[in-house]
């Protein structure tokens, strides 16, 4: 009888111990976020994400490639949010170049668990891509943007490969140059009003050979956003030339965002 009474006294402590073990086990084994939304930048469409898409799909992720019209930031955010709404569960939102401005605004959506910037602009509240590129540092490469036509921008086709796709196969870089999507001035000048990186965890891939967004500008924006940073040797089109590196960072974000929510 004394043994039974002692055992009953111990039960609450034993139960508490097992509760802690179970909680720690659940935290350690929390599944990564499995939905990924990919947002392209200016002058291109979503087809450049094919390599990244294929890698992530093979690893079990549900991947959506957004086809933004890049006419205005407001419209692109709306299109991106529709893609987010169509998915079940939390989402990792990925943006390349101007797509970084899109995800900075669209990332305030409650379903977005984390942001991934790929050689991208990460505007603060009140900033636009236009304001971020207004005063380039001395010696910084100047993107070969042609004068606007009817409110839209294009890159010089002859200079496109060297500036935008320096490490992409020549035939692919030429195709990208000749299949450009006009980039609207309203997109370039669109102002972010609710920078999601202020409240959401973020990751940033800095491309050290970038001739569109200087690497130091990428470093400054990623530092300001408090992003976890990975640097790779690559051009502005790293998502085309190095899909493995891009997919790897997205996987880190998917695992890290899941852990941060526990």
From TrEMBL:
Superkingdom, natural source: Bacteria
The species this protein was found in: Tunturiibacter empetritectus
InterPro entries membership: AB_hydrolase_1 (IPR000073), AB_hydrolase_fold (IPR029058), Sec-Metab_Biosynth_Hydrolase (IPR052897)
UniProt signal peptide: 1-23
Official protein name in the record: Pimeloyl-ACP methyl ester carboxylesterase
Keyword DNA repair applies: no
Keywords for this protein: Signal
Record flagged with keyword Repeat: no
AB hydrolase-1 domain ranges (all copies): 36-248
